[in-house]
Task: structure prediction
Amino acid sequence: MLTRRAFAGAAAASAAGALARPSLAANPDVIIIGAGMAGIAAARAVMEAGRVPVLIEARGRIGGRTYTESHTFGFPHDHGAAWFEAVERNPLVPLARGLNFQLAPDPETVSVYIGGRPADAERYERIYRDAERRIDRAARNGGDVAVSVALQARDSLERLAFAQIGPLDAGVELHQLSALDYNRQADGGLLLPAAGMGAFVQSYGASLPVRLGVRAHRVDWSGPGVSVETSAGTLRAPAVIVTVPVGVLAAGDISFSPPLPADKQDAIAGLPMGSFNRIALRFERRVIDEKPFTALNALTRAGDAIYAMLRPFQREFAIVCVGGDHGRALEAKGPQAMIDFAIDALVEIYGGDLRRAVNGTHATRWGADVLTRGAYSAARPGHARKREALAAPLADRLFFAGEATDPKWAARVAGAWTSGQRAARESLAVLR
Result:
C-alpha cells in the first residue's frame, strides 16, 4: 500500500445507542465536547485518574469520523477511517489486540492504470518513493514550504503518484500542503481491523458516560470555571476539553466567550479540512480480476486520479476514493454523481460487464456533514506549527484535542487518541 491514510476496508458494526452506559454526574470535573476517538480517550484518562468527566456528543452515536455499519450491503462497511498506519509504533495496535480485534496485514498488491491501460507499476512505486525523499529534502532545506515546490509532474505516471500524496492522501492539492507537516507525520506498515475501525472505537468507548444527541452551542470560559450551553441545557465544570473537528471550529458552529485569541483563530484557519470520500460498490458476481485487497491507483481518461481497494476480504466489492479539488467538486454534485463517476472509472479498466454487475452502492460526503465539514485536517504551507498552537490550553481551563492538534499522527485515529490523552493530562494537572 502506498497511501498512508487511505480509508479502505470493511468491518462489523456495534450500535452506539444499544450500549449500556453509566449515569452522568451532576458536578463533573471535566466537560468533554465530542465523542470521537479524542473525546473517548480523554474521558477514559480522566476516569482512570479518579476524576469525573461528562462527555457530550451531537450525533446519536459515538465514534465521530469512525463509523461502521452493515445494513447497506449486508456485510460490514466502514464509512470513515479504517487502517492502522505506522503499525510498528501505532499506540492503538496493542489496544485493539487487547480488545481481541483481529488485524489483517496489507498484502501490498498494487495495480496501476493510466487511461484504462496498465502502466508500469514498478516505475510508479519508484516515483512514489523518490517523491517521499524529495518532500523530505524540501522540508529539511526549505522548511515550511508547499509540497509542490518538491513535486512537479512531468508525465501522467508522475501526476498519478503525486495525486496519491496530495488529494488522495492529505485531501488537498500539493500547493495547499505543507511539506514540513507532511514530512513529520508517522509512516510505516498498515493493518486493517477485520471487525472494523468503527467497531474498535465503539468498543473502546463502550463503558463511558456519554450524552448522545447533545450539541454544544457556546463555551463561556471567562472564569473561574467554564460553562457550556448545549441543546439540553447548561453544563458547568472547572475545565472543558474541546475535541470537535477543526472544520467545526472554523465554521463558528461553537461560539466562545470571550472569543478565542488571535493566535488560536489563526491556527484554526491554517489547518483546514481536506476533502476525501469513499464510494463503495458491491457486485453480484466476480467482475474484477484482481487479488483480494489489491490497491488500484489509476488516472482516468479525463485525467482524474483515484485510489481504490478491490475485493477486500475476498468480497466482490470495491471502494473507490476521491479527494482534493476533484473530490470536493464531485461531492458537491451529490451521491449519484459520485457513484456514476466511480463506476465509469472502473469500467474503463475492467469493462462494461462491471456496470451490469453492480447491485449495491454507497458514497460518503464528509464535507457536507455539518458535524465534520471535511475529512481531516491538512496544514497549509507556512502553518505546520499551528498544530501545536491549536493544542495549547487557554487560562488553565480550556483545552483542545483532536487529530488536528497532533503533529505526529495528524489526520489519523491515533492522532485523535494521543491528543485526547494529552488534553486529559493537562486538565488533570490543573485539577490537582
Residues 328 and 404 are 20 Å apart (CA to CA).
